[in-house]
Specification:
The protein is mostly helical. Helix content is 51%, strand content 4%. The protein is built from 13 helices and three strands; from the N terminus they run ααααααααββααααβα. It has helices at residues 9-12, 22-33, 38-48, 60-63, 88-91, 102-115, 119-135, 145-149, 176-186, 192-200, 203-206, 215-231, 241-271, and strands at residues 153-156, 172-175, 238-239. Strands 2-1-3 form a three-stranded mixed beta sheet. Helix 6 packs antiparallel against helix 12 (215-231), helix 6 packs parallel to helix 13 (241-271) and helix 7 packs antiparallel against helix 13. The longest helix has 31 residues, at 241-271. The chain is globular. The two termini are 15 Å apart.
Length: 278
Amino acid sequence: MRRIALAAAALCVSSQAFAWGPEGHSIVAEIAQRRLNAAAAAMVEKLLGRGHSLASVGSWADDVRNERPATYNWHFVSIPLALSDYQPGRDCRDDAARGDCVVKEIARLKRELRCAETDAQKAEALKYAVHFIGDIHQPLHAVLDDHGGNDFKVDVFMRGQVCLGKCVPQRTPSDLHTVWDVTLITRTVWAWGAYVDRLENGWLKTNTDPGDMAPESWAVTAHAAAREVWNAVPATMTLDDDYYRTALPVLDRQLGLGGLRLAKFLNDAYASTDCTAP
């Protein structure tokens, strides 16, 4: 993978601008962990070490992002909100300093998982795959407008479920991207493991098929979800419990799909030993 040394000061301000929070990445990773086949589970143990879970490396790509600026654009894809398709030349332009986009990087990773030259490089590919397959399912990662919603300023005034009937919400300035990265999850459960259990007992009970496994398709699906939740923001720019109730089914679906697809991605990658294809 490319490692281009750049001054990272300009990135420090926005190093978390395009990422599920650690809760979201852990949720996706744990759902996948429970669905690995024997071959994939053995390879994960070999590369990460005995006792290490996918959730434990789910946010690694964010941890190293500032020191590896050439990976910056791998966390998202920039599809204009008003459009509904993915066009690589428009939405995934290659920047020599910051990379191209998450769609192309995920496609590269499937081969790197099993065909990188060293186990250390294969382990890095695994950690990137866990993170980026999470990222591509966060709806705001698929939107160009307002820097993926980072510049879409809102007020948060929701109880969600953790606070329902027990406390008075405080009006908090935020942005739409942060709401989707962190706020909706932390307004639903106190800890990410409980969200996994919630999905296992809910959305994942009736949804077991990961569907289309093409990363470009994932991007288009996430973009459609982004349009839905973007347009649901009221004119007051205040996200209250009405918005929460609208957003929660979308959040469940995207986290659940991310986990199912990560599991299949790893199972399929480690089922093959072919390293001859480009």
